[in-house]
Amino acid sequence: MRAKIIDGKAYADGLAGRITAALPAFTERTGRVPGLAVVLVGCDPASEIYVRSKGRKTRELGMVSFEHILPEETRQEELLGLIEDLNADTTVDGICCGISWAT
User: Fold this and answer.
1) According to the CATH classification, is domain 8-99 in 3.10.20.740?
2) Considering Cα of 13, then 14, then 20, then 23, what sign does the dihedral take?
3) Could you tell me if 50 and 98 are in contact, meaning their C-beta atoms sit under 8 angstroms apart?
4) What are the E-state strand segments in the chain?
5) By Cβ atoms counted within 10 A, which residue in 7, 20, 41, 44 is the most buried?
6) pTM here?
7) If we measure between CA atoms, which residue out of 35, 41, 38 comes closest to residue 77?
8) What distance in Å separates the CA atoms of residue 81 and residue 9, rounded to the nearest whole number?
9) How far apart are CA 83 and CA 92, in angstroms?
10) How far apart are CA 22 and CA 27, in angstroms?
11) Of 35, 34, 50, which is closest to residue 97 (Cα–Cα)?
12) What is the 8-class DSSP label of residue 31?
């Protein structure tokens, strides 16, 4: 079996195009644009860059970004409460979480 080279940038560009093409139908059906919530717990520099890039790309594609940056001291109950609130929020269609609690 030969290795298959995957072009991640080309795939991401194609996915962005498919998302952009699907937005008008979503907006017409729901009366709003989709929203992505990104939750980060802790101060991991790589995760902070990831959250910023997700927010930027979400907005570039014409969607709404909800970014929640929580301190490392955030208790599990607080995080679960936020996620429960986001699940109940009709403007949020997806949630991405990153947690970097100290061990």
Assistant:
1) no
2) negative
3) yes
4) 35-41, 64-70, 94-99
5) 41
6) 0.82
7) 41
8) 36
9) 11
10) 9
11) 50
12) S
